[in-house]
Design goal:
This protein starts with a helix and ends in a 12-residue tail after the last helix. 50% of the residues lie in helices and 10% in strands. Helix 11 (228-240) runs parallel beside helix 12. The protein is globular, with a radius of gyration of 20 Å. The chain has 14 helices and eight strands. With 347 residues, it is α/β, with parallel strands linked by helices. The protein has one domain: Alpha-Beta Barrel (TIM Barrel). It has helices spanning 3-26, 42-46, 53-66, 71-83, 96-107, 112-117, 137-143, 165-177, 189-193, 197-211, 228-240, 259-276, 291-305, 322-335, and strands at residues 85-88, 129-132, 150-154, 182-186, 215-219, 245-247, 281-285, 315-319.
């Protein structure tokens, strides 16, 4: 590797390394505590105004092209991806039985022969959570009892967020009462287009209060927000209002999670941490269906925020079909052959 390439590599990884050092010195272990939020600071918001799309795209290109993860290392990273997954079903034809089958998959995400061949022994690999609509929260809670798999409920008139505020807050309270550990809320995108930052802050703060002990994940609907500046501003307001996670998409937009948008959000998380010492999680959701894509996202998180941010407390994939491709890749790693999707049923 040339001296220039080495210098470039050091320059790119320095922010993540410095962030890890500050985190080790100033904060407890990842995932401990909640984001208490802060009053809306428009000056802080304005300091994030300059967002260079071309620079973000170049950075993403360098990450995904330079990092080649193969063999045993790839298998290990794919197992990590499973542990970071919110296994999701958000379909109009969802039923209690479908949710029970999905929870059964969460209990045993890999076929027994793959687990044995990988030599995992007693190591348990499971998704971080199962994500469902409110009517199925109680069903998922019962089906997952005795495991450490959480239950996440989409809420606040998902996917558009256009119901009256009282209705949206009531939906959160109902899901928490049914046993949800995490609440994924959506913001009304019109508040972003109108730069109604105080109103957005107030709404997310109300969601945070309604969550109680359940963690709050705020979905921005980035594919609808038109500009990266809007994405960054919405990210910062959500964090100021008490979001424990910020999330890219509902999965229902025409454009969902993309790496440049994710990078903009991750850098907003870094700026918020540097200003407050509070670690905020990130969830990439919508359109992430291949093992290769999951590796790209893991590389982005590792390079930009450091090792602590590839734990379930701080990073998630929202996915419905990703697990199938990861199983196929792991089987290929073991046998040299790809299997058909139907050999790895989801539900």
């Amino acid at each position: 590797m040339s001296s220039k390439a080495v210098a470039d590599l050091k320059a790119e990884t320095a922010p993540a390394r410095a962030l890890e050092l500050r985190m080790a010195a100033n904060t407890p272990a990842p995932g401990l505590g909640r984001n208490p939020g802060m009053p809306l600071d428009l000056g802080f918001l304005e300091s994030m105004r300059n967002v260079n799309r071309s620079a973000l795209e170049r950075r993403v290109g360098s990450l995904t092209k330079r990092r080649s993860i193969k063999g045993e290392t790839q298998a290990a990273w794919l197992l990590r991806a499973i542990a970071l997954m919110d296994l999701t079903t958000l379909n109009s034809n969802d039923t209690e039985e479908r949710v029970r089958r999905l929870c059964a998959k969460a209990r045993n995400p890999l076929r027994g022969d793959i687990v044995e061949a990988l030599g995992l022994g007693r190591t348990i690999i499971r998704p971080a959570a199962v994500c469902v609509y409110h009517p199925f929260v109680a069903t998922a809670v019962e089906a997952l009892r005795g495991t450490d798999v959480g239950v996440a409920a989409v809420s606040t008139a998902f996917p558009h967020g256009l119901a009256p505020l009282a209705t949206r807050v009531g939906e959160i309270a109902a899901s928490v009462a049914d046993g949800a550990d995490e609440i994924d809320v959506v913001i009304p995108r019109g508040l972003v287009f109108g730069a109604k930052w105080r109103e957005l802050h107030d709404e997310v703060s109300a969601f945070r209060a309604a969550c109680g002990e359940a963690h709050l994940k705020v979905i921005l609907g980035t594919g609808d927000l038109s500009s990266l500046r809007n994405v960054v501003f919405a990210s910062m307001v959500a964090m100021m209002a008490g979001a424990d996670f910020i999330k890219t998409s509902t999965g229902k937009e025409s454009v969902n999670a993309t790496l440049p948008v994710g990078l903009a959000m991750v850098r907003a998380i870094r700026a918020y941490f540097e200003a407050t010492g509070i670690m905020i999680g990130f969830k990439a959701a919508g359109g992430i269906s291949t093992a290769k894509a999951s590796l790209d996202w893991l590389v982005l998180m590792k390079e930009e925020l450091g090792r602590p941010w590839i734990e379930p407390q701080l990073f998630r994939f929202g996915a419905s079909s990703l697990l199938t491709d990861i199983e196929r890749q792991l089987e290929h790693h073991l046998s040299g052959h790809y299997s058909a999707n139907h050999r790895h049923p989801m539900a």
